[in-house]
Amino acid sequence: MLEALGIKESTEHVYRLLLERPEYGVAEMAARLGRSETEVREALLCLADLKLVLMDESSGEVEPYSPDVGFSFLLSRAEAELGRRRRQVEQAGRAVAGILAGHAERPGHAAHTAHRDPVDRITGLDAVRERLEDLAAGARTECLSLLPGGAQLPDTMDASKPLDQLALERGVRIRSIYQDSFRNDPPTVEYVRWYCGLGGEARTVPVVPMLMVVVDREAALVPLDPQDGRAGALEVRSPGLVHALVVLFDRIWEAGTPFGEAPRRDEHDLSPQERELLMLLGIGCTDDIAARRLGVSLRTVRRMSSELMSRLGARSRFEAGVRAVKEGWL
């Protein structure tokens, strides 16, 4: 259960026993756990490296630190690593989108082989929807989707329902990542609940970096222009590019909150959305930009900003971001 903090299950057993029976020495713990003394010592050394126990290697005496102190440090470190990885994923998403756009616009790329081009341009919203329906109808094993913007369009959900149902019935695994803000839109919530009830899977994150659909890890659709979804899409079939997009999806999926669960608040009582807002404030984003990034209304961002400023004792939004870093919230 603590592997995300760098603690293996076998080491966790040693730690829990030490908290329960702090008077035990290495021999007693080995006997109680049915393990060798060498294995127990290795686990204790690992716990000492993680600052969860104080170990005197010469005498063999072990004393656990207060768990709230040790775990506060480990959780903060894990949250920082998660934030770093999330920023790397967003940067990778933007880089991939730029690579795809540049590849599609390269002169003479349109018809140099008799086979389907590794990147095809699809112009117009209707043409994109038609191609999405074709890909979904032909899916054999898996469909992955990144869906930014919170609430989804009603006609998009209506068109997706029969395709999703047929795909799930024939054993296709469907996973979708939405922004946390979609929870504020009852029709979208109802749609996701319906599709999860049929066996689909969904998670949420504060910010989805781009719109994307990947089918069978063989083809992907991404926007031609990330700022204008109606301009069209790029269909990618190059194995290397599709793999990069799948890696992008998997990293975001790992950081997401499963649908039906409340977003987990950290040790500072911050939700993932509040942490994201603080980071946006810290780099000087305006309320308008923050609202677009989070997929929420301007009023919601201002309310959240005001609450965070009050908690941090800050007089400005920028100061709130700076104070959050100084206080260890970010």
Verbal overview:
It is a single chain. The protein is an alpha+beta fold and 330 residues long. The chain has three domains: 3-65, Arc Repressor Mutant, subunit A; 76-258, Endonuclease Chain A (Endonuclease, Chain A); 272-326, Arc Repressor Mutant, subunit A (Orthogonal Bundle), CATH 1.10.10. It is built from twelve helices and ten strands. It has helices spanning 9-20, 26-33, 37-49, 67-104, 125-138, 154-169, 186-197, 239-255, 272-282, 287-294, 298-312, 317-326; strands spanning 53-55, 62-64, 119-123, 142-147, 173-179, 201-205, 212-215, 219-223, 232-236, 257-258. The strands form two sheets. An eight-stranded mixed β-sheet has the order 3-9-8-7-4-5-6-10, sandwiched between helices. Strands 1-2 form a two-stranded antiparallel ribbon. Helix 6 runs parallel beside helix 7 (186-197), helix 9 packs across helix 11 and helix 9 crosses helix 12 (317-326). The longest helix has 38 residues, at 67-104. The two termini are 24 Å apart. 32% of the residues are buried. Residues 108-115 have low confidence and may be disordered.
